[in-house]
Amino acid sequence: MSIATPINLILLSLFAILVYMQLRPKAPVALPQAPPPVVFRTFTPTTLLEYNGEGNKPVYLAVRGQVFDVTPGKNFYGPGGPYENFAGRDASRGLAHQSFDAEMLTKDLKGPLDDLKDLNEEQLENLQSWEERFLEKYLVVGKLVAEGDPEAPKS
């Protein structure tokens, strides 16, 4: 009885193929491209306005002085979304009133920030819950200050 039987040759061939498949050179793994880093910035209402999602720009909005990158929720906050009025703006008053209308936005972008002092307890609770939701879901990319504030970016 010889060792070179047909079954042994088939098994040896299969073994050689398996060893080759395991040891052959593999193509390098391509890692996905990381998003560009976001630097914490200081915004004024006029500098925040350009971040409304148009022209492939990110979508930012402010709540109580914190600027959030809501680009992952662009379907909601970007152009054509139900909350598009808030894109690039301070959304605090509208969120507190549970109103997404343009009337809730500050018209004078060069004036002082809305101090929200006239909000009642229920409206403040609404605003607090929205702020907590944004802190859980979105990255804080800056803070909002009024035009003329010492921290305001120089144009």
UniProtKB/TrEMBL annotation:
Cross-referenced InterPro entries: Cyt_B5-like_heme/steroid-bd, Cyt_B5-like_heme/steroid_sf, MAPR/NEUFC/NENF-like
GO CC term (a single one): endoplasmic reticulum
Secretion signal, residue range per the UniProt entry: 1-21
Parts of the chain that traverse the membrane: none
Presence of the UniProt keyword Metal-binding in the record: yes
Location relative to the cell: Endoplasmic reticulum
Segments forming domain Cytochrome b5 heme-binding: 43-145
Keyword hit for Chloroplast: no
Molecular function (Gene Ontology), one example: metal ion binding
Name of the protein in its database record: Cytochrome b5 heme-binding domain-containing protein
